[in-house]
Amino acid sequence: MTSNPDDTISNALERLALTLGESGAVPVPELVRALERAAERLRTRNVSEELPTDLVTQAEAARAIGVSRQAVNQWVRNGALRSYVRPGASGRYGPEVSLSEVAIAANRRSREVPFAQGRRRELLDFLGLVERDSTASVARDIRESIEDDSFSGRSHDQLRVLREFVTASMGVGDQQHEFNAAGVKLLADLDPRFEVDRTSPFGRLAESLGLLIRSAHGAAGFDSPATAVLGLLGSATVGALYDGEDADCGRAIAGAAREVWGEDWPLRLYDVAFHVGQLRPTPLTRYTASLTYLDNNRFLRQAQSSGVTIAYARGPGVILPQRFYGAPILRDILDGRRDDSTTWRFSQRAAATGRPAQLPSGESPFRAFHYEHGLLDTTIHGIRRYCFPAVDAGQELRSYARSLSAPERKTYLQCAVDTLARTLSQTHIELGVIDEIEHFDWWKDHVIRASPREILIGLRDERARRTAHALLVETSLLPEVVEAADSDGSLRDRLRIYVKNLEFDVIDARYRDDIRRGVARVVKHGGQALRHDESLELARTLIRDFMR
User: Fold this and answer.
1) What residue ranges do the domains of the chain occupy?
2) Confidence band for 174, pLDDT divided at 50, 70 and 90
3) What band does 445 get if pLDDT is binned at 50, 70 and 90?
4) Residue 511: is its pLDDT beyond 80?
5) Contact of 369 with 266, CB cutoff 8 Å
6) Phi/psi of residue 516, each to 5°?
7) Cα 141–Cα 153–Cα 274 angle in degrees, nearest 5
8) Element counts in the chain: helices (H) and strands (E)
């Protein structure tokens, strides 16, 4: 190589890689893999040398995560948990630990065995009570999937759909599409695994609640046993609040659940959805908007053994009350008559706002589940990184406030402050803001939430959204997309790179890189505990800034 003072090291390395590939000295696929491995090793080594941002004393970690101080100390002694010493720190409190790493250790040691015999018996008792009338079919399908150990949620068609998605999405700029015409057809042609009669009372109620996936063939239902359980949960909670004969079905489901689990039945049904999802996982599941919001609890419980999840939101509920609570509950808040004894409850007057399928997805009453039983749930260990664009949030906050009368506007903004303050007060929440709109890119808009185990991909294409609001993909399925590629070597290598970009480690690296470069700013770090007055003052400042 000749020396040139204008060359940079990165340019020289790039030319070397191109020369090796173009000359055939190293086969291009092997070169790509080698460079990826080298980059991963360098990135991993660099990250491991950095001190975590959420270092606390062992006592503080025990209080925050909800385990004994002795347990944390024992994990450190056994080498199951790393300890860190800050440069120049005195030895008064001893080595510190990472809050998220303590969460990982706590989850791995407290995780219940999926479907202990007692829990399975309770579910079968509940299904026996609802295996009649219009809910008979879905209850029977759930029961049979649990009892059949040969049940498989995987199909070749799922792999084809995911491959069509990946192939269409590999473009850049305006060439990025979620699906081409062939992919949309594949997605729409998939029949749901558990079919529901849409003309029955349960079918009419579930469809009006936006819970059913529909295929181009006219079939409607659920793609997995776990989402079928969520369909029963949604019908028994929000569905039971509406008038009509179909809503009687939701009230009957709630009565059966109460008979088995008592007044704690909603949380027990959430437990069931989690355990069924563990027992009978489905690698690719289509989600309606309502199912997306309902399933945040199961997603976090399943994913948090890693200690961290990442979510990106264009319309952040932690800033916008209408997206946090949904239109019916917000209507009650603005009218000063909300009954908050139950998270999802709203009045008959507010029910006139409409059923979820009639409302914009961002104003669905199921949004309350997404936050109250998901993002803010303190019983689920781990750090939740929640990032949103300041420009979009500010525009919608101002626009919605202007549409209200003066008294309602005051109530609305106070609600925004209170909701944000409660979010900031949660130790496990990390809130990030992206100030420049161009930095909230296509991928950040695309990946609703991600963990090492699962990624939820939001669909924006209106053609694809007629079938699904989002696709929940198990990361274990992604490598098979490459294996299923045609013999086109160039395409296969591009698929490898794109599939890698879907993985949690890459999304996590991008998030960290945005923080380092100042593209995103952390309003509140995960693991940081704020007093009530501190979180309230910070919330007031942020809402005031967004209203400017």
Assistant:
1) 55-110, 113-151+201-281, 283-489+506-546
2) low
3) confident
4) yes
5) no
6) -60, -40
7) 75
8) 27, 13
Q: Which two tokens stand for residue 16?
A: 């070397």
Tell me the range of 49-58, 71-80, 117-126, 404-413 where mean pLDDT is highest: 404-413
Q: What number of CA atoms fall less than 13 Å from residue 312's CA on the CB side? A: 24
Give the model's pLDDT for residue 46. Answer: 44
Highest mean pLDDT, choosing among 26-35, 51-60, 231-240: 231-240
Using CA atoms, how far apart are residues 280 and 149, in angstroms rounded to an integer? 9
Count of C-beta atoms within a 10 Å radius of residue 488: 10
What's the pLDDT band for 48 if we cut at 50, 70, 90? very low
Q: Mean per-residue pLDDT for 202-216?
A: 96
> What is the b/e burial string over 293-321, where b = at least 16 CB atoms within 10 angstroms of the residue's CB?
bbbbbbbbbbbbbbbbbbbbbbbbbbbbb
Hey, what amino acid is at 319? I
Per-residue confidence at 69, pLDDT binned at 50, 70, 90? confident
Q: What is the separation of C-alpha 137 from the centre of its chain, rounded to a whole number of angstroms?
A: 29
Rounded to whole angstroms, the Cα distance separating 268 from 266 reads: 5
Bridge partners, residue 385, by sequence:
310, 430
- Measured CA to CA, the distance from residue 204 to residue 249 in angstroms comes to 10
Distance CA 213, CA 230 (A): 13
- The residue among 383, 213, 209, 380 whose CA lies nearest residue 297 is 380
Average pLDDT value over all residues in the chain: 86
For 198-212, b/e burial (b = at least 16 CB within 10 A) is bebbbbbbbbbbbbb
CA distances from 344 to 61, 163, 404, 421, 546 (A): 32, 38, 23, 20, 27
Residue 113 has pLDDT above 70, yes or no: no
Report how far apart, in Å, the C-alpha atoms of 127 and of each of 130, 143, 257, 264, 324 are.
Answer: 5, 7, 9, 17, 31
* 150: number of Cβ within 10 Å: 4
Phi, psi values for residue 98, rounded to 5°:
-85, 130
Q: How many beta carbons lie within 10 A of that of residue 366, not counting itself?
A: 27
Length of the chain: 548
Name residue 384's beta-bridge partners. 309, 429
Q: How far is Cα 449 from Cα 309, in angstroms, rounded to an integer? A: 7
Q: 56-70, 125-139, 192-206, 306-320 — which is least confidently predicted?
A: 56-70
